[in-house]
Specification:
By secondary structure, the chain is an alpha/beta fold. It contains five helices and six strands. It has a single domain, classed as 3-Layer(aba) Sandwich (Leucine Aminopeptidase, subunit E, domain 1), CATH 3.40.220.10. 44% of the residues lie in helices and 18% in strands. A six-stranded mixed beta sheet has the order 1-6-5-2-4-3, with helices on both faces. The radius of gyration is 15 Å and the shape is globular. The protein binds ligand AR6.
Length: 180
């Protein structure tokens, strides 16, 4: 089946999907960037939920993800994924980023969620080069959706023009390759 992937430019906190992904850090205690925006929009319930997870499981290492309620967000749940910090590319950053996307998709599927939205994990404070990260995001999601029944649809929520254009180009290329 042809994967349902959409690219939009905007703020992930406004997305009416089953689950949104947060670009978190191992502490799960919030931060800046998309993490800060999600915690502000969700309200204090989200931090409480993260504290509970933290008490049960400890820190969330890079490449891993956990799921919580979504507080005041329009989404039903939040998956907190920890991407790699970019150190130049020779510290397994690519495989850790791919693992983070795969773990998010698996968690959404395990919870029966059909629609999910991703930000561009690691491409802000964590410094991952945007084009390289976008390739991993599109390839990993495309492959997963081609093989599994859930989630049914993924939306990449891009915050800036550059990221939006990168994703659009990659997705078009991927679709053309499939059709040729
Ligand atoms: N909606 C969608 N995307 C957004 C939004 C938003 N509201 N706000 C920012 N972005 P970052 P990271 C984009 O730095 O690199 C936090 O402090 C942003 O333009 O949020 O994984 C955490 O606690 C960029 O493209 O996450 C960690 O300590 C992308 O989201 C650390 O930052 C990711 O940027 C994680 O760093």
């Amino acid at each position: 089946m042809k994967p349902q992937i959409e690219i939009i430019q905007g703020d992930i906190t406004t997305m009416h999907v089953d689950v949104i992904v947060n670009a978190a850090n191992p502490s799960l205690m919030g931060g800046g960037g998309v993490d800060g925006a999600i915690h502000r929009a969700a309200g204090p319930q989200l931090l409480e939920a993260c504290k509970t997870v933290r008490q049960q499981q400890g820190e969330c290492p890079p490449g891993h993800a956990v799921i919580t309620l979504a507080g005041n967000l329009p989404a039903r749940a939040v998956i907190h994924a920890v991407g790699p910090v970019w150190h130049g590319g020779d510290r397994h950053e690519a495989s850790i980023l791919e693992e983070a996307y795969r773990n998010c998709l698996r968690l959404a599927a395990d919870n029966g969620y059909k629609t999910m939205a991703f930000p561009a994990i690691s491409t802000g404070v964590y410094g991952y080069p945007k084009a390289a990260a976008a390739t991993i995001a599109v390839e990993t999601v495309y492959r997963y959706l081609s093989l599994k029944p859930l989630p049914e649809k993924v939306i990449f929520v891009c915050f800036d023009d550059d990221t939006t254009h990168l994703y659009q180009r990659l997705l078009t290329q991927r679709r053309q390759e499939l059709e040729s």
